[in-house]
Predict the structure.
Amino acid sequence: MVVLQDRPVVPLSPWLSRVLDECAGNGRTLQLVTPMESRLTLPLRTAASGAAAQWVVRDGDGYYEGLSGRPLKWTGATFAPVPEARDYAPGFTTRPAAALGSQLTLVYRTRHGDGDLAGPIERLLQLLTGRPPAGLGHAEPLEHPWRRERLTEYARGRAAAKLIVAGDGPRPAQAICEFTATGDGGAAEVSSVTVGYAADDPPPIQHLPSLIGALTAEQPVASLFVQLTPGRPDLTTEPRWTGAPAPVALAVAGAVAGPPGQPGQTVGHPNTPLTLFPLGDGRSPDGWQRHAALMQHLRSNG
């Protein structure tokens, strides 16, 4: 399915959300076509990185993939890679239109019983922004002001649910929460929280141990992964190369020994401890090597 959007900022609108669900359900791919000047919001950019969607950027008479820079061409039925292309599309390597900062992303996994589901996401956003969340919904703009019971009611009524939660405070913050019902009446949650920081406003990486400890004081988590990505502080994405993400830390439940030369730090409540493994400063790609070694160690000892 090909959809044209000629606007400065393209959100995950209710209509686009329905189209994405339809394409995912019948095995098709949504190809979203925009001009080079367009940006995607974080929820739509996340959707466009999945199997059911592709961002196609129009640059003069040519096209390219907005998230990878791969040149594309129109075949008469779909946009497909240019076989002879050996480099990024020229538009992808042009300078960003606005100053870049960094985007701090925290992804946590947890399991809930039959009670409230909104505690962890509310707590994490409050720790990162200083305020409770501002709103929630399935599409943009968000339909509802923040209410814990509304998130719980919606997520508990479905086998699987995905919600967007907006943060409040001086920095842009958004979360994408996914819930899957478990056979025992509970729910598994995987949520990703991203906060935007300007170049002169460094993210609070040094405070991660205390932040993770505060997050897990009321609700234990199975794991929490932290990475830093160069990007616009407003959390929108231009169809240009702005830099690769790099890992900062990984925390896993329990008192766990790391691989040789990679010690961990115990954080969290004494009854539900986590082991936090530093991986890097979020700016060096070397962190991915430490991440790979740690994951291999955890799998072999799991």
Observations:
- The helical segments are 14-26, 42-48, 119-129, 148-156, 208-215, 286-300.
- The two ends are 42 Å apart (CA to CA).
- The mean pLDDT is 94.
- The CA atoms of residues 191 and 229 lie 17 Å apart.
